[in-house]
Structures are given as C-alpha cells and as structure tokens.
Description:
GO terms for molecular function: ATP binding; tryptophan-tRNA ligase activity. The protein has about 400 residues and is α/β, with parallel strands linked by helices. It has two domains: about 65-245 and about 360-399, Rossmann fold, CATH 3.40.50.620; about 260-345, Tyrosyl-Transfer RNA Synthetase (Orthogonal Bundle). About 45% of the residues lie in helices and about 10% in strands. The chain is built from eleven helices and eight strands. The protein has helices spanning about 10-30, 80-95, 115-130, 145-155, 160-170, 185-200, 210-230, 270-280, 295-305, 325-350, 350-380, and strands at about 35-40, 45-50, 65-70, 95-100, 140, 205, 235-240, 395-399. Strands 5-4-3-8 form a four-stranded parallel beta sheet, sandwiched between helices. A two-stranded antiparallel ribbon has the order 1-2. A two-stranded parallel ribbon has the order 6-7.
Amino acid sequence: MSVRVSSGFTASRLFWLLHSTVWLWLSLGARGCSCVSTGRVNGRYAGFLAPQPRPGAVRSTPLMGAIAGIQPTGDLHIGNYIGCIHPAVQYQNDGGQLVFMVADLHATTGDEPVVDLGRQSLSTVATLLACGVDPERTSVILQSQFPEILELNWILGTAVSLGRLRKLANFAKRVVAQESDSVGQCLYPLLMAADVLCSDSDTIIAGDDQACHVGLIREVANKLNRRISQPVVKVPERYHNGGFRVLSLDGAEKMSKSNSKEASRIHLTDDDEAIFTKLRAAKTASDHDLAAPEIANLVRLMRFFSGGFVDETDGCGRPELQFSELKSRLHEAVSSHLRPIRTRYLELMQNDAMLKAVLQSGRRRQQPVFSAVVEVRRSGRRIHGAQRVKRASNYCHVN
C-alpha cells in the first residue's frame, strides 16, 4: 500500500513533480551558461558552469596586461630602472601582456627643447631591450604614432575643469601653475590620462609620486562614463609594484633626468669608472645617522642591486656603518648589474633598422586596440564578446 500525503498525491508522484520542478529551475538558471568541465569534487563528479556574458554586460575581471611609459628625454638612470623598467620586465617574464610606450609627446612639454627626439627615442628603445624587454612578447610603441591618443585627449578635456588641471601642473611641485607655464605643462596630466584610457587599462602601475595623476585619470573616466550613462572607458586601479622612490645622489629630491647636475644620477649606460666617481661623491651624513634620507637611499640601492641583506654595522657589531665601505660595495653591485646592460645597449645602437622594426611591429599589434577604444567612445557604447578587442593594461610612467 502506498503512503499518501495530505494533498492526495502519492509520495512517488510528489517526488517526480519536485524533481521536474528543480530540473526546470536549474535549466532556466543555467541559461547563458555552459558546462566547461567535469571533475571529481570530494569524491563526487561535478560539472562546473562558466557564466557567459549577457548582451550589454561589461567585463568586471581584469585581463592580464600592462603598459609602461617612459620619456625619451635623455639617458635612462637607475631610478627609471627600479621604478618602472625592472618591474615591467618581471611582469613580462611572469607571462603578462606588456606594452612599453616611448612617450615622445610628453617629452616636448618641458622647458628645454629635446635635441634630435627621433634619435633619443631609438636610444630609449635600445635601453629597454638591453634591460630585458623582449619584442617578441612585448609591444614597444611610439606615442606619436597613435593619433587616437590625441583624439581621446581632446574628449577628456571636456570632462575636467581648468582649475583641477592647474593644481596638478608641474607634477604638483606648486599648488597652482604660474602664468609663465605653457599650456602643454598644464595639459600634461590630461595627456597621461589619454594614454591610459586609450589603452583600455584595468590597472596603472605607478609610484607614489604619480598618485595625484592616477586620481585625475579615475576622475575623468568616471565623469565620461556618467555623461554617456554607461561605462565606455575603464576606471583603472593603481597597482603597487613593490618598487621604491630613488633619491638623487645628493639626497635632495627624486632622481631625475631633468636635474642639471650630472653627478646626481647613475645612468644605465655609465661605465664602471663613472659609477665609482658618482658614488664616491654621493652625499652622506657626517653624524652616521642611518635614518638620514641620503643614507637610507644608498642602503636601499645596495639591497636592490645585491639582492640581499645589508649589514648596517662596521663588521664588529657596532651600529656604525662605514660609508666608504658601503659606497665601495654599492659600486661593485651596481657595476656588476649594469655591465651587461651597457654592453647590449651599445650593440643595439649599431642597428637602427632593427630598432625601427621593433616600433613598427609594436604599432601593428596595438593599433587595433587603440582604435577600438576610440571607436567605442564615438558610438557611445562598449563592444562585447568576440567584437571587443581583448586587451587590458596597466600603466607606469616616469620622467
């Protein structure tokens, strides 16, 4: 005799009714999904459903990609290397998609004219390759070869106030730009935003000194998306690459190519003698204060180039670091690290045709990406699925 429930259905009929209902619910819930694999979970077989993008949906998970930018305004130095080039090469070697932008347009915004910008750009490309950038895996591009950047730059200009730009002018060294500053200096942060947003960036690799510029990029991206009422450009996040801010050898400010004192920086192409001379003249505190900025800077450099622990004693357990010994050891570590880079750089500079071919290859690979972002902005909507050029990137810019 079958057992009956209060509704009058038999238990077996109720079971099959519930079973059919659950199956129908799962089928409807899985619409737009596909079973991509089957495996054992805790001893049982299970199917894993991967949701497929619905029409109008915007991807929220970042793709693996990075873009780094550097100005061809002179010989690159160890500050550029530690803050941008080395992290980018590590990113590349870890399997990330990397784009390296030689920012020749940015190089024209300074007070001093850049002599032979074309030659300087090729020199920058040679330095990047000598440091480990692989043109087979990484796209090395020239900023001026992408007119889409300037088009987006104009569009972004409608989304930010002049007062906001004035506060960001000259890398925030002054609260408000002066009357003598050029328009290019005021618009520099906006052009940087166009670099990032035109590359469809998910993330920006940047140091602490670029925090205000990253904030502006996010600000104009949000304003542009609100104006269209849908996300047409990414709102990138800042990525901390683990580098540190390298001070000049006199400890006064950040190591920079724009510093008039040649001895304030170590170039990646300096020979052993030049490195020794610059380090010997590096400023050190007379009172053996290890917390002094110029001393802490040398210790950090020693840790980076030696790849290990730095003993901050005199070898007898006394907490007095012998600065002459530190400089000697640092010279050995830096020279050993930069020697193969310098050798490779000199070889590459003998082959202009190859360096130009690297830029041409990068342009061919990245032109569809930059064009797609601007086209999306023109149409006021994102491209999804197979139509969308799948490219995410981070940004690192140094001067």
